Amino acid sequence: MTDKPKALADVTILDLSHLLQGPFATQLLADMGANVIKVERPGQGDLFRTLTFNNRWVGGSESPNFLAWNRNKRSLALDLKAPDAKAILYKIAEKADIVVQNFRPGVLGKLGFGYEDFRKINPRIIYCSGSGYGDSGPYLSRPGQDMLLQGLTGIAAATGRGDGPPVPVGSGFSDQIGAMNMVYGILTALYWRERSGEGQEIKVDLMSAMLAHQGQEMLMAMNFHEDFQRPRSGIGHPGMDAPFGVYPTSDGWVTIAMSPFKRLVGVLGDDNLLVYDDPKTLFERRDEVWEELAKRTKAWSTAELMKALLAVDIWCGEVKTHLQAEQDPQVRHMQAIASYEHPVAGHVKVVAPAVKMSATPAEIAKPAPLVGQHSREILAEFGYAADQIDALVASGAVGETLPG
Q1: CA nearest neighbour of 316 among 267, 266, 254, 261
Q2: What is the mean pLDDT of the segment spanning 369-393?
Q3: 137 Ramachandran zone, left/alpha/beta (phi>0; psi -120 to 50)
Q4: What is the pLDDT of residues 145-169, one digit of tens each?
Q5: Alpha carbon distance 306, 216 (integer Å)
Q6: CA separation, residue 287 to residues 33, 161, 247, 261 (Å)
Q7: Range(s) of the domain holding residue 299
Q8: CATH assignment of the domain containing 80
Q9: What are the φ and ψ backbone dihedral angles of 339, each rounded to 5 degrees?
């Protein structure tokens, strides 16, 4: 635990979000000290508590998907449809700075938890909504899931080999980009409120986010009226020429980025490859060039090839698995992997906060919570007496889970 101040220590966030987009956004803010009150369904909690990879559970019962996006938060288990829920959330909203939610458009508004409802209680409140496709239009009823957005916005069609199917990115890329846009909007709104005293509503949708984060690819396609054609080889981007790509070695793979072709040929030791050395050829025959280069790189071990390429300033890198990345010397040097102790899962390794700040550093101060673990604590902070809390728990409006 650091004794340095937290930049967002006086910011309270009412977190009504679930799954990945909203929870990652609020975790980023929690890492910087924000007081995040995560509202979950009694007993069940966030849907991500029941989803995992390959039916594997940390500590035997905890979802890695949930643990990844919910540290540094407290859980208030609340039945949003219970009559008492509205009074509780409105009472918290009187002092809250931010509301974050990623329900389908209109769902919370029908329950009385939309922006206008909270604004009447607290005109300074900042209300951030996340969705798949905005709050109107022909896709309004479609599910806004990450891979579906990758398919709709061009990134899957631009990824993979030309003789194979489109390839989604191997992580929840759309949701994480959406989360970053939420944080960007929230911090902008906080700064504006400091100047104006006014709150506002923020809307983030995954479709717009994914298009914006493919700005250079979209600009090329739209202005030249031509889609990228995926290469049939390991070329790493549909708009790039050789040698840009992924190449086999005798014991693994290496990446080679924008590098002088003649210098690369010099390392590989075969001047016959220089027949390809002009920009037009390196693009139009890039699959052929990749195949010829790959025949040569296979003769090297990864370590030997990396040493030779780096010696002449070729832009290159090893291809590593997640476990290999954890042990990477630069990753270890940067202390990019951290851990925390969870009351059920035990010792949990996590990725450390990525943003470094000298005066107000991010910190992992709390593990991901159990469902309703902090219900009593939170309600007491907002003025509820012990007997009132007992009654709310007894009625089922409020839930709780105690560690151990």
Answers
A1: 254
A2: 97
A3: left
A4: 999 999 999 999 999 999 999 999 9
A5: 30
A6: 50, 10, 12, 15
A7: 245-326
A8: 3.40.50.10540
A9: -160, 165
Q: Are 162 and 151 in contact (CB under 8 A)?
A: no
Closest listed residue to residue 128, CA positions, set 35, 15, 37, 210? 15
End residue of a domain, out of 326, 355, 381: 326
- Owner of token pair 């080999």: 161
Q: Which amino acid belongs to residue 127?
A: Y
Domain tally, the chain: 2
Tell me how far apart the alpha carbons of residues 156 and 166 are, in angstroms, rounded to a whole number: 5
72 is written with which tokens?
Answer: 């540094």
Check whether residue 306 and residue 163 sit in a common domain.
Answer: no
Q: Are residues 153 and 259 in the same domain?
A: no
Asked if 220 and 228 touch (Cβ cutoff 8 Å), the reply is yes
Element at 200 (helix H, strand E): strand 200-205
pLDDT digits (tens, 9 = 90+) for 299-308: 999 999 999 9
The letter for the amino acid at 151 is G
Residues 6+ away with beta carbon under 8 Å from 89: 14, 39, 78, 80, 113
Token reading at 348: 């949990």
Output the pLDDT for position 403: 86
Which pTM does this prediction carry? 0.91
Query: Catalytic site residues?
Result: 175
Classify 11 as helix, strand or coil.
coil
Q: Identify each DSSP E strand in 159-213 by its residue range.
A: 200-205
Amino acid, single-letter form, for residue 38: K
How is residue 363 written in tokens? 């910190």
Q: How many helices (H) and strands (E) does the chain have?
A: 17, 12
Whether 362 contacts 32, CB under 8 Å: yes
Beta bridge partners, 339, equal 349
Q: 6 and 363 in contact (C-beta within 8 Å)?
A: yes
Q: Is residue 300 part of a domain?
A: yes
What H or E segment, with its residue span, contains residue 329? Answer: helix 329-333
Residue at 249: amino acid letter: T
Whether the link from the prior residue into 243 is cis, omega within 30° of 0, is yes
What number of CA atoms fall less than 13 Å from residue 105's CA on the CB side?
17
Of 177, 179, 201, the C-alpha closest to 70 is 179
Kindly calculate the radius of gyration of the chain based on its CA atoms and give it in whole angstroms. 25
Longest dimension (CA), the chain: 85
CA nearest 78: which of 114, 117, 111, 123?
A: 111
CATH of the domain at 291: 3.30.1540.10
